[in-house]
Specification:
By secondary structure, this protein is of the alpha+beta class. It is built from 14 helices and 15 strands.
Length: about 375
């Protein structure tokens, strides 16, 4: 995907690759990444079986994704107690361009916030092009400076720091900007989203605005990546037409990644990505998936190939039990900057700033009062 030119970053110095930590159950990681929100019946059934926990332990690498932005437990000897209050996680969707290996950015940045009542979950999008002050980051050799938030991830990955370093620098930057500390974090690449959707058997999505794909073409009626299509003659334009339909992984992912040609650009893309996450949660919690062991196995196997997770030392089982009562209907989709690009004095449209209202909303996340903020500011809630 083409993007505007990004600010230059200082030349980093070498650093060792972060050391992987413990591994976690694939089914639990799936539930966390797509909202942490399988229905109570599935979570209880899986957690209640040590055999299943043992069976699915081992497919996911877990790393420190938060560094100094991790919320410290009140009792270091019993970190699970931190789940008695609000739970806030950083979810990152990353895009590694095959034509430019190592060029990785976090094109999707979502804060998952569960209030202390544990009866709802808020998905709050952070614009990827938010202009921020990025702190110095020794692991990648980044000296610090102003840039877009998505480029903070790229700066954190350099010199062997990898995706874990990118996530850490995004988390540290968000902590500087908003004061939010996180209970956990997760990374998934876009190919991972596609594989999980296919394992679910597709998802039901409603396209509200006709848009042409910037990433794919139709070659002999079949979808093909743009670069590959050019090699065989270019193919035809691929359009996502208005209407509700069941989508395979490639189609749902491609639609949710479009921003050019949409009235509100990246804000429409953010909205569609939140809708996709909700659709995945709805599909994962459907009877057809939960009652079919083969489909559950396919889903968690697909999830296990693509996720990196950090639970801040809290057992994953604690997360699942904490979130087990939340269903897809309890997901609240939240937007920033009133859903509109906020250039705030920039002469270019390549970057934007958070509005004072959005900063107030993030402060409500920090203090565990987001539900109260949204009651007073209902326009921040996305209507399906």
């Amino acid at each position: 995907m083409s993007t505007p030119s990004d600010p230059a970053t200082p030349t980093p110095t070498p650093t060792p690759t972060p050391t992987p930590r413990r591994r976690t159950p694939r089914w639990a990681v799936l539930s966390l990444i797509i909202g942490g929100l399988l229905m109570a019946t599935s979570a209880t059934a899986l957690v209640g079986s040590q055999v299943l926990i043992d069976r699915y332990t081992g497919g996911i690498q877990q790393q420190d994704l938060l560094a100094g932005a991790a919320k410290l437990p009140e009792d270091p000897e019993d970190p699970g107690k931190s789940l008695d209050g609000p739970v806030t996680m950083l979810l990152l969707g990353v895009d590694e361009r095959g034509s430019r290996p190592g060029d990785i950015r976090s094109d999707t940045i979502i804060i998952l916030h569960v209030p202390a009542s544990h009866d709802q979950a808020y998905l709050v999008s952070v614009p990827r092009d938010t202009w921020v002050e990025v702190p110095a980051f020794e692991p990648s050799g980044y000296a610090g400076g102003e840039s877009k938030l998505t480029d903070a991830f790229h700066a954190g990955t350099r010199n062997g720091a990898g995706r874990a370093g990118g996530a850490q620098l995004v988390a540290l930057t968000l902590k500087e900007v908003t004061g939010i500390e996180f209970d956990g974090a997760a990374i998934i690449d876009f190919a991972g989203f596609r594989d999980v959707i296919d394992a679910l058997g597709g998802v039901q999505m409603c396209i509200d605005q006709r848009v042409m794909s910037q990433h794919m073409r139709l070659v002999d009626g079949e979808p093909m990546w743009l670069a590959e299509a050019r090699e065989v003659g270019g193919g035809e334009e691929l359009w996502h037409e208005e209407g509700c339909k069941r989508m395979a992984g490639w189609e749902a992912l491609d639609y949710s990644r479009q921003r050019y040609g949409l009235p509100n650009g990246d804000y429409d893309r953010q909205r569609h990505q939140r809708q996709l996450i909700k659709a995945m949660v709805q599909e994962a919690s459907s009877t057809g998936v939960l009652t079919n062991p083969a489909r559950i196995d396919d889903v968690i196997t697909a999830a296990g190939r693509t996720f990196v997770l950090d639970t801040g030392g809290v057992p994953v089982v604690d997360f699942v039990f904490t979130l087990r009562g939340i269903t897809a209907n309890d997901l609240v989709l939240v937007t920033t900057n009133d859903g509109e690009f906020n250039s705030a004095g920039f002469s270019s449209t390549a970057a934007e700033r958070l509005t004072p209202e959005s900063l107030e909303m993030f402060d409500a996340v920090r203090t565990g009062t987001l539900d109260e903020y949204l009651l007073a500011n209902p326009d921040a809630v996305q209507q399906d």
